[in-house]
Amino acid sequence: MLSQGKTMEIAELYDLTHSYATTAQLAGVDPKTVRRALARRAAGYPPETRERGSVADPYLAKIDEWIERSSGLVRADVALLAQDALERCWAAEAERHRALAKRIDEHLGGIGQ
Predict the structure, then answer these.
(1) How far are the Cα atoms of 26, 37, 59 from residue 21, in angstroms, in the given order?
(2) Alpha-carbon distance 14 to 47, whole Å?
């Protein structure tokens, strides 16, 4: 689905180029997407939109807790990024340790043979 801004960009580009292929290339979309967007515009339909949740939605309860505990001093966006970064680091670190241990075992196992 295209944003309203992208749909307007496609319409403006098409008005300048009068070519689906050139418009698609300039807008970075498929020519079929250009055709569909222009057909919807010509028929008088509003641009297609869909409601999306926020990336933070699953963490809202925890963010609210942090904000209340800190009396509003913790920024929710920073706290969310910090928690996500820590979780990724822990997972990546554990995976690196497993891979390193496996390589050491393979290397040491091959020396005495």
Answers:
(1) 9, 13, 42
(2) 16
Instruction: Quick: pLDDT tens for 53-88.
Output: 777 777 778 777 877 887 767 666 666 666 676 677
Buried b (16+ CB within 10 A) or exposed e, 76-97: eeebbeeeeeeeeeeeeeeeee
DSSP letter at 46 equals: P
| Cβ–Cβ under 8 Å, residues 31 and 20 | yes
8 A C-beta contact, residue 68 and residue 79: no
Cβ atoms of 37 and 80 closer than 8 Å: no
| Sign (positive or negative) of CA dihedral 69, 79, 84, 60 | positive
H/E stretch holding 96 reads helix 76-111
- Whole-model pTM above 0.85? no
CB contact at 8 A, 6 and 30: no
